[in-house]
Specification:
This protein is an alpha+beta fold and about 400 residues long. About 55% of the residues lie in helices and about 20% in strands. Helix 3 runs antiparallel to helix 4. The model has no long low-confidence stretch (mean pLDDT about 85).
Length: about 400
């Protein structure tokens, strides 16, 4: 059940990201052709008012297909009509006329040979031409993305990360207002199991309602004066046995020593401290502060990604899902908090100025707006190749870290 909740949480983050692109594209007049959660073959597909909605087999993202993302080029004809041309040689004439029109950027004139190509392909029963015709028609349409004013293009693309950013702030505010405001030294809940084994806090005999007064690590007792003393002492215990002195029902109780376990790079015993909820205003302000702090830290970490210590902190889909699954054990507040962190990370990652990420499309739209003319299609393709390589590298690093943690 915890795994299902984790997967649904990730799926919802992808859903709202793509919904941001989708609804803003509609609002500025760039009617999307499809809304997709996942990649690969569709598991479920529905067509409403000319728009295809699909859930696909590979749940590693999603996309909204906006018509005419790139200026049409002559080489597109061979790419999308190769199968039809091979099956029906009589289509070569209109195809060549279409290529010449696109080569000289006569986009209005290109509509004539494209229409002729469609008619002859239908008469010849040529295979696989419908999708290609639709793609070129979309790129030639007045409402195509590449033809839209800069502000419309930027608005449609920035809407995805912006939605994730706003959602993160909302989640943080809910948690601070209801569950996790100002921390105390009193235990709220004890995790029964972690990663399939009994949690150290459970083995030590810790109970909900215990107030932690002191902690012993390495034969040295440390008094607890504030909640941060608890988290800092345990996280820096280095795997040594930890002994807790707690106040329980007005009497002091020394618990059985247990070594903290390293989870996601942090030593933990497996319990959550009680927090005093904040009011609506303070909760919102704390959510904004937290968002700013985490964003700054995340951007700094991305800048140091090639350092070994920072590289080991990168997580892939397995690690993210596992983290959400573990967070469910600590209660809905911890789960929503982690979901907010992931939503914020998703927004920041997508804003990197790399194609095919959202940040790359934003950067190119702004550059074209400043230049007053389009950037060559070949430049888009070369920059996209570099961007895809970097994104794949991050994915491979995250996946290798996930596999390493599974065996640690």
């Amino acid at each position: 059940m915890n795994l299902l909740i984790a997967i649904l949480g990730l799926g919802f983050l992808i859903l709202i990201h793509e919904a941001g692109h989708f609804f803003v594209s509609l609002a500025v007049g760039m009617r999307p052709r499809s809304f997709n959660v996942g990649f690969g073959p569709p598991l479920f597909k529905l067509r409403r008012r000319g728009i295809d909605y699909a859930v696909r087999a590979i749940p590693l993202g999603g996309y909204v297909k906006i018509p005419g993302m790139h200026r049409p080029a002559a080489k597109d004809v061979d790419l999308v009509f190769g199968r039809a041309l091979h099956a029906a040689p009589e289509l070569v004439g209109p195809a060549e006329r279409l290529k010449r029109a696109l080569a000289r950027e006569d986009f209005e004139g290109a509509a004539v040979p494209l229409k002729e190509f469609r008619q002859r392909a239908e008469e010849a029963g040529a295979p696989g031409f419908e999708k290609g015709v639709q793609e070129i028609e979309d790129s030639l349409a007045p409402q195509a993305y590449w033809r839209a004013p800069t502000w419309k293009r930027v608005a449609a693309i920035v809407a995805g990360p912006a939605t994730n950013l706003v959602f993160a702030v909302v989640l943080f505010a809910i948690v601070f207002a209801v569950a996790a405001g100002k921390a105390t030294t009193t235990v709220d809940r004890v995790v029964a199991t972690e990663n399939g084994t009994t949690a150290p806090a459970q083995l030590a005999g810790l109970r909900a309602g215990d107030q932690i007064a002191a902690i012993e690590v390495g034969n040295t007792w440390r008094a607890v004066n504030r909640p941060s003393d608890i988290t800092n002492t345990i996280s820096h215990s280095g795997g040594k046995p930890v002994t807790l002195l707690v106040a329980r029902n007005s009497r002091a109780v020394v618990l059985r020593p247990q070594a903290a376990r390293k989870t996601e790079g942090v030593y933990r015993l497996g319990f959550q401290l009680k927090a005093v909820p904040l009011g609506t205003g303070p909760a919102l302000w704390e959510a904004v502060r937290t968002t700013g702090f985490v964003a700054k830290d995340t951007v700094g970490s991305l800048g140091r990604i090639f350092q070994k210590q920072n590289r080991q902190q990168v997580s892939g889909p397995i690690g993210i899902t596992r983290g959400l699954k573990d967070a469910v054990n600590y209660g809905w507040g911890q789960y929503l908090l982690l979901l907010g962190f992931i939503s914020l990370s998703l927004a920041l990652l997508n804003l990197l100025p790399l194609l095919p990420l959202d940040g790359g499309h934003i950067a190119f739209s702004l550059l074209e707006g400043i230049r007053g003319r389009a950037i060559a299609r070949e430049v888009y393709e070369r920059v996209s190749a570099v961007g895809i390589a970097i994104v794949l590298l991050l994915f491979i690093v995250g996946l290798s870290n996930d596999v390493g943690r599974l065996h640690s």
